[in-house]
Amino acid sequence: MVWPLAALYLLLLAGLATGLVLLEGVGAVGVLLAVAGLAAALLIALAGLRWRTEGLARAISSLARGETAPLPQGPDSLVDALSEAGEALRQARRQSELYRAALEASADAILALDEEGRVRFANAAAATVLERPREELLGRPLAWALPDEQALATLRAARQEGRRRSATLERPQRRYLRMTVTPLSRGDWATLVALQELTELKRTEQVRRDFVANVSHELRTPLASLKAAIETLQEGALADPAVAQDFLARAASEVDRLVSLVEELLELSQLEAGVLPLSRRPVDAGELLQRAVERMRPQAERKGLRLLAHDAPGLPSLSADAERLERAILNLLDNAIKFTPAGGTVEASVAPCPEGVLITVRDTGPGIEREDLPRIFERFYKADRSRQSGGAGLGLAIARHIVEAHGGRIWAESQPGLGATFSILLPAGPSPGPSP
Predict the structure, then answer these.
(1) Full-model pTM
(2) Helix or strand (DSSP H, E) at 134
C-alpha cells in the first residue's frame, strides 16, 4: 500500500514542476520552493503510512498471541476489517480454551491422537486411569499407554470405517474400561479416545448376581427339608405319633431358619439403605459386653468352649443404640463359637483407646486365609464353606453396617491355624446418664 501512494506523489510533483517552469513570471527560485514543499508533503505522507503499517503489524502479532492491542485509527477499511477479524480470533480462542477446560475436567480419561496415533492431548483423568504421568503419555503411541489388542483393534476399525466404535476392555487385577473411539474430520487431532472406568459397576453387578444366587441357595436347603418332612407325614408317618412328632419338630426348625433368614435380610437391607434409625443414648461399653457374653454362654458351654470376658477401668461412655450394638457383638461371638473346636477358648474384651473404645473378640479356631480377610464382611460370604456349620453368612455383614452407622470401624486379623481376632473401634460419646 505504501509504494503505490509514493509513486502517485512523485508523478504529481513532476507535473507541478513542469507546469511552473512553463508559466511566465515565475523564476527558478519559485520552482525550487514548490518542489521543496511537495517533497515535504511526500515525506509526511510516507511517515504516516509507515506508522500505520507498523501499528497494524503490531496489532496482528498481538492478536495471534491472544492479547488485546489497539489498532491504528482512521477511515481505512482495512483497519475495520482487521478489528473484526481480531475480535473473531479472540472469541475462537476463548471457545477453544473452554472446550479444552471441559475435556480437562472430565471424569473420563480423554486422549487426542494425531494421524500417526501418537497422543497429543491427555487430561488429568487419563493419567489416573492409565496409571502413568501425563508427561510420559504425550508424544507416545496409544499402544504404549494401553497395550491391549482389543483396544488397538477398536482404534483401527474406527479409523477405517470413519465412525465411532466402542468396546469393553478387561485389564489386569480385574479392572474394566469402556473405550469409545471417535474419528475427527478436521484439526490437528485425528482421533478422540475416551476411557470410562467400569470396575466398580462390574463389581456391583457381580455382587448383585452373587446375592441372588446366595439367597436362592440359602432358601433351597430349608425349603427342601420342609417339603421332605411334609411328604413323609403325608405318606403315613402321621399314624406313628413318635415319628410324626420328630418330623414336625424338623419342619418347625426349618421354618424358624427361614424366618431368621428373612428377618436378617430385611434388617440388612434397611441398614444398607440407611432407613433404620438409631436410638442413641449414653451406653457403658463394659456392661454391654458382659450382657452379650452372658447371652452366648449357654451356646459356648453346649459346644465345650471356655467363654471369657474382660473389661478395663476408665472406659469412656458411648453414644450408641444399645440394642443394635449388642447385636453386632453377639454376631461376632456367635461367629467365634461356631468356628472354634470343642475345648477351645473364645475371649471378649473392651478397653479404652485414644480414639474411643476398642472391643475385641478372639478365638482359637482354625483361622482365616489371607485372601478371605478382605471379603468376610460381605453378605453371604463364607470364608471356608467346607467347614461352615449353618448360618446364611449375614451376621458379619450386619455387624459391619451397625458399627459403621455408629461412626466406627470393624476389621479382622488372622493367621491360618492360629485363630482369628475381630475388632470394633467406636468413638467415645457423652458420659453415662439415665436412659431416656
Answers:
(1) 0.53
(2) helix 134-137
